[in-house]
Amino acid sequence: MKKLLLCAVAVLALVGWASADITIGTADSANCIPWSCTSITQGSPYEQIYNSSAFNGSINIGTITFFNTYYNNGGTQGLATMDYQIYLAVTNQTVPDGSTPPGEVLFASGHLSDGAWTFGDSLNFSGTPFLYDPTKGNLELVVDISNPSDPSSGVYTYFDASDSGPFSRWCPACGGNQGYGLVTGFETAQGTVPEPGSLLLMASGLLVAGGTIRRKLTR
Fold first, then answer.
1. Cα–Cα distance measured from residue 184 to residue 167, given in angstroms and rounded to the nearest whole number
2. Number of folded domains in the chain?
3. pTM of the model
């Protein structure tokens, strides 16, 4: 009985640790940097810091999503052509400054190809799961770009952005910009941490089982 209760307490403690998928920022403007207008970024890194207060618990990040639902540029939109590397890091900085954050970890890398883009689609990057604990600091995202070129159509794709979000961005053309950045979705890696509701259900089951065993033993 005592062991079951201890297990239940441990499971309940995990509820405060686990976090579900989250989208940070509310779209109120649009931004082609860095996924479409590489001529503006000059092929240099794009950095964005997300304030830890935007997260309600630790999250094992498996997918990062950028949204294109705020502004329809019309015509034949396109993405830039580039090789990219996406890094994640925990930082004490609130505004990025173009320097490499200590302890950055490669999340994903690949090649983005120019091509027609449909308004409303989302750009998704899945990578090596990154466990982020907001009690340790803010979350920094760095996109290293190489071999870039703008869309051949000449019409940029604008992703959802905010000028009053719990984040800040840096790029060569925009400098450190407090409160501005791309609206970003963080999704948990598959098959990792159970949802808080599932953890509560598990804890309840353990407590019920413990109570049943205790009643049988006392009869």
1. 10
2. 1
3. 0.80
